[in-house]
């Protein structure tokens, strides 16, 4: 039985308590899942070691256009420069995930997207701290992409994603998409 309480972590992320077990992120109370999906358990892997730092909340878009998925390459002067990733970025204070995702896509690649739905949530631990990535599946009406804050881009079939040097936090999602191709 799922007993949900609108408790907050230090990062003010809503969590649910499943019976007497540990707290897990609650996408229903975060406004990213419908009531019907509320009892659907998330795959949540806690950090290997205790980390007093709350995770950085990041959105990422799995943008589809005519059967292909958009990857962008990080600029060489940024952390993890040259690696490929799904476009997106950090949420600003008091910004909803969907608004943050759409803002990041406009700022990075000048792309407008529609039909954005939560696809998966992934926790990743970097050397500098934890990241909670909210992946959204989105549709684009065009394949035209600007390079405002990216070095390059590629529209790829799912099986082609494995041919690119992917950002560590995105590798799990790339593998999952390639497996379902």
Write up what this structure looks like.
The chain has 181 residues and is mainly beta. 12% of the residues lie in helices and 37% in strands. The strands form 2 sheets. Strands 4, 5, 6, 7, 8, 9 and 10 form a 7-stranded mixed sheet that branches. A hairpin with a 4-residue loop joins strand 2 (14-18) and strand 3. 25% of the residues are buried. The model is unreliable at 1-24 (pLDDT under 50).
Mean pLDDT: 81
Question: What is the total tally of β strands?
Answer: 10
> Can you write the helix and strand succession as a string?
EEEEEEEHEEEH
**How far is the first residue's CA from the last residue's CA?**
35 Å
Low-confidence runs of at least 5 consecutive residues: 1-24
Instruction: Give the CA-based shape.
Output: globular
Helix content: 10-25%
Strand content: 35-45%
Radius of gyration: 17 Å
Number of helices: 2
Please summarize the sheet with the most strands.
Answer: 7 strands, mixed
**SS class:** mainly beta
- The quaternary structure here is single chain
């Amino acid at each position: 039985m799922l007993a949900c309480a609108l408790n907050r972590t230090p990062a003010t992320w809503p969590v649910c308590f499943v019976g007497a077990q540990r707290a897990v992120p609650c996408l229903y109370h975060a406004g990213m899942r419908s009531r019907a999906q509320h009892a659907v358990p998330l795959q949540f892997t806690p950090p290997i070691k205790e980390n007093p730092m709350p995770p950085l909340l990041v959105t990422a878009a799995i943008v589809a256009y005519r059967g292909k998925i958009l990857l962008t390459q990080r600029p060489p002067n940024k952390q993890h420069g040259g690696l490929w990733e799904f476009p997106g970025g950090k949420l600003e204070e008091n910004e909803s995930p969907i608004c943050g995702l759409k803002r990041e896509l406009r700022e990075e690649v000048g792309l407008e997207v529609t039909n954005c739905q939560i696809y998966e949530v992934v926790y990743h631990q970097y050397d500098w701290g934890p990241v909670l990535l909210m992946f959204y599946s989105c549709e684009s009406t065009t394949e035209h992409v600007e390079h405002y804050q990216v070095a390059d881009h590629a529209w790829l079939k799912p099986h082609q994603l494995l041919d690119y040097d992917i950002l560590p936090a995105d590798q799990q999602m790339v593998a999952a998409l390639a497996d379902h191709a």
